[in-house]
Predict the structure.
Amino acid sequence: MTWSMPRPVLQLVACLLGLASVGAFAMGIVTAQPPGRLPGETAGGVDAEVIQAQDATPLVDERIEGRPEPEELTPEEKAALEAEKKAKAEAEALAKAEAAKGAPAGPESVVTPIVPPPPVAKAEPVAPPQPKLEEPVF
């Protein structure tokens, strides 16, 4: 290749770049923090207190044994559920009977006429835009 600088200058710049990268790596190693400790682990020879886990939660029985059985419904709750089921069944039967007669069962079945939209004036055809040249992804 043809370079614009003399070869000794290029070698000097390459050496400086290499020296800077090795120096930065060495400084990163020297100034790194010591590895962290887990709760209950001592600092290995250093007089330090044991770390206490403030937000640690014990395993609950649900995770070990599975979910508990659902609670039994009271007779009043059972009666209320049965009444709801009967009311729903009666409403469905009424809706089916009215649908069979042909009468609307409620506001949901009201049919509104569909009106076509007004005609739109045709615009002149526009020339398609020129495709852009692909640029390199740098």
Notes: The mean pLDDT is 78. The radius of gyration is 40 Å. The longest helix spans residues 75-101. The helical segments are 7-30, 61-65, 75-101.
